[in-house]
Design goal:
homodimer, about 290 residues, alpha/beta, Rossmann fold, 2 domains, 6-stranded parallel beta sheet, 3-stranded parallel beta sheet, 11 strands, about 40% helix
Chain lengths: ~290, ~290
């Protein structure tokens, strides 16, 4: 069993990006610039944004954090986005979700210039994903693809079971892996709460991608020998060893599943750590496209 | 075994639409207006367009056929599209594919106002499809959904095998059927030329959607007892009974498969006939949205 080490890979990616950015600077080019937009004081959102900004600093990107008042109107937020859309010094930007209920998230995301949509949530970019046209892939699916790539895990002709059909993980990673590319060219099944014989279907899969948001849902009887298991879940549960505290666990019962696997991601330390690296890769890509760099 | 009768259903849909259009006229409203745009003299394209215009006439839609010269430039075609985008009397329009090689199809399709994209090929509409937001679904997937609906075929929790992963059938129908809607909420597998154990996978499916473009590819040993079989293939092969002539057959070996099925579509007379009806439904929908009619 080999651990798919999100810490190592994301660190490798950051090192590679930092080297590229250093080269840009040597050539007299400005570095890539990521802007984060957040509305209100959601503690989790602020923590995510801090880690994104920290990652930008680490690789040498410029970053700007626009923090907007909880009571901002939809049209004011649209104005902020329009300014970022036309600003030639902004390569990519993200609007941190969730937004206050008074604001239409889909409308906001649809107003982002798709060429700056480094979160990959704009419907144009999702549409391109579906038909296999190069685009910005959102952080979690892209993190999974990078992991498969960097461990040279074969996918062509493999049976991949995607457990969960969310808009940010299940459906996009499924359509990525059915394209005629690597990682991809697989036979992909999307399984979920309505699926019958779930145990058998998961057990028959060469690669299981668990993104159902239920702690320890995937048990060892649901996984075939030598399967590759990608655990996207990040669930907070009471920590038996430390009463009153919580701990993070995945959708997979790691301790019992891992011995059967050829590869498996730990939680924490797996896919979760890849998402910021994916955002950096997308920002670098947007920068290159904007500046005609190959 | 029950035949899924594309002729009957498409005729029913046309009758229903004609009644709705008659009501509009009674209220003094103009009828829906579909514009078809074609470039050059492709015989198949011209035949498709004729059938679309004929269907418009049948239901009482206005239609306009814009026939452009084979040598039109990309920018001239973009100008034509821009005029249609802003014309308040055009509810929906389609650009008949294929286009001459000198013209970038994706660019052309991306230039259509998504609210008039009744072919459902614009990336924004494909992106909405992926994340389950109401949109224009392209003709073949929509024809399949209508068939499932009008025969009340249960899909929730069913195992659906989609054979083929094209941009116009396999991938879009797969993502439709995995949404939490009816028809949908199914466990969907997308199978193709790289799939291993294809026979077993198809045989285990409750519903098979064959869209692989190979005549009589799906044989009776690949289909389970009481399966529902939707045959999207339209293949021209030599007609053994009429030497020198050809006949149309599907991707399914109908004669041998049909006796095992609970439902099956014939070819011709099945899904193929649904596509024009789907275009009419989309045009009606665009008209209603444009005019604020519920």
């Amino acid at each position: 069993m080999i651990l798919l080490d999100g810490k190592k890979i994301s660190s490798d990616i950051k090192t590679e990006i930092a080297e590229i950015v250093a080269l840009f600077r040597k050539k007299g080019l400005r570095p890539p610039h990521l802007v984060t937009v957040s509305v209100g004081e959601n503690a989790a959102s602020q923590s995510y944004i801090r880690s994104k900004i920290k990652a930008c600093e680490k690789v040498g990107f410029d970053s700007t954090n626009i923090k907007l008042d909880q009571n901002i109107s939809e049209s004011e937020l649209l104005d902020v986005i329009e300014k970022l859309n036309v600003d030639p010094l902004v390569d990519g930007f993200i609007v941190q979700l969730p937004l206050p209920e008074s604001i239409d998230e889909f409308k906001i995301i649809s107003s982002i210039d798709p060429s700056k949509d480094v979160d990959g949530f704009h419907p144009v970019n999702l549409g391109k994903l579906l038909i296999g046209i190069d685009t910005f892939i959102s952080a979690t699916p892209m993190g999974i693809l990078e992991m498969l790539k960097r461990y040279n895990i074969p996918t062509e002709g493999k049976d991949i079971a995607v457990l969960g059909r969310s808009n940010i993980v299940g459906k996009p990673i499924a359509v990525c892996l059915m394209q005629k590319t690597y990682p991809g060219d697989a036979s992909v099944s999307v399984l979920h709460s309505r699926t019958k014989n779930l145990r058998e279907k998961l057990r028959a899969a060469d690669i299981v991608i668990a993104a159902i948001g239920k702690p320890h849902f995937v048990t060892s009887d649901m996984v075939g020998e030598n399967a590759v298991v990608i655990d996207v879940g990040i669930n907070s549960i009471p920590d038996a060893k430390n009463p009153g505290l919580t701990k993070l666990v995945g959708d997979v019962d790691f301790d019992n599943v891992a011995p059967k696997c050829s590869y498996i991601t730990p939680v924490p330390g797996g896919v979760g750590l890849m998402t910021v690296a994916a955002l950096l890769l997308n920002t670098l890509k947007a920068y290159k496209q904007r500046n005609g760099i190959d």
